[in-house]
Amino acid sequence: MARIRLEFLSITLPVLLLAFLLAREFDLKNVGDEGKYIQTIEQQLDLPTTCQTSHLTAFETANPSILLSTSPLDPFDAPKFSALNRTAGEQWAFDGTSASGRSGLLLGIYRDASYAFLGPGNFRVSLDVVWDNGTTFSTVDYLARSVVHVCENQVVGIWASAIDEYYVFQATRDSKHARVHIHTKEVTGSFAIHSTTPSRYPNGALVSDKVASTWNAPMLHWGEPIPAGGIEVDLTIQGSAFRWTGLGGHDRWWSGKGWLEILTKWEAVRLTAGPYALSFWQPTSRLNGVSYPSPFLTKHGVNVFSAQRNSVSETDNHILYRSAPAPRDGGSMHDPVGYEIELISPSVGKKWSFTLEYRNQEFAFDLGGGAGGSAYVGRVKGGEDGEEPYEGVFFIEHVDVESLTVPKLYVIVCEWYYQFRAKVLGRWDVSM
Ligand SMILES: *[C@@H]1O[C@H](CO)[C@@H](O)[C@H](O)[C@H]1NC(C)=O
Ligand SMILES: *[C@@H]1O[C@H](CO)[C@@H](O)[C@H](O)[C@H]1NC(C)=O
Fold first, then answer.
1. I need a labelling partner for 313 at 20 to 30 A (CA). Which of 65, 85, 186, 200 fits?
2. Ligand 1 atom closest to the CA of 64, numbered from 1
3. In this predicted structure, what is the pLDDT of residue 412?
């Protein structure tokens, strides 16, 4: 007879306890509801009748092998899986930074079964914001239903639990415009992003490229429908106005396994300065230890630089990316202050440099043992070497979960998740 290993017990017990507590905490609705509210929400959106629809409920998973989209020609915002299995997940992410460099928001909308063991289902939505004065708000919601309509000119996603509890995104098929509507107990309103840049793939290929690849790192796919654009935010959060304009962006990730199992760390930067916009995403794979940089720079909306290398080269485009030194006058040496980014194109003999200075922290979490993550918004200065530097704003995120091994991870997730009431889980598992 097999004996139950102690290690196994120590994982199972907290998981079961947690699942129970969470189910209570989130007051899970009976997904046996008929979802009539979905129709009511749809009526407000004025949808065409000819859309292809994918309608899932929160505890639904399919047989193990599900179809994963890898075609660059599939619409960015259409579901990348035919259904969900036990480990697959995908994310629609939207972020914004105010023109002051002090306010920001980050919204992740998921279809993700990789944390189903926690109990509240597969449709997580996480929202982190920071106001100009540094006050932050974070929430994670679990919704009962997820409906995505892929229409001729737009993709519409509805994550909802009731007629007055939903998140909706609408993105045009050409990825020029995206709008998000939120209606929950704590947050109401909308924001809109208007792209000023071409959509792109991990290798820097542009949207029209039929041979582009969505492959980003082992087991991870990624596409960026909006590398940068203008954002208009008009939300009310716990009764406080959250209204500003600035820089916005939109990404899509999908993977057959949870992020913590396939990545050890990742970083993301989005910035604009004068005519320039830069988006930079770099995951490091747990499967092979390799990091996959992908800076993408546009000037006046035209791609002028992309790279897939982060070390010096005499021939290949590359990015050099490092922590900025602490200022000499005051400030703790341990507090992060910013970043310096250099983009170098040896073949055309050009170099662009950007100096990022943090203004406000959008979120931070510490998992112990060196694992954790943080995000900031702030002011940036830079441009091509020799040019008068332009000023602008940026969003930056760093997450490091390298020291977490998978069994240990589940124990930590459980304890930590309960302790912090899911506030930022949605960030570091940013999951798939
Ligand atoms: C779920 O589907 C994905 C994509 O086809 C696959 O990579 C993954 O291994 C599947 N998970 C399970 C538990 O079978
Ligand atoms: C910061 O601004 C928000 C939104 O106006 C407000 O709710 C909050 O009380 C302010 N916090 C402080 C510390 O002033």
1. 200
2. 14
3. 58
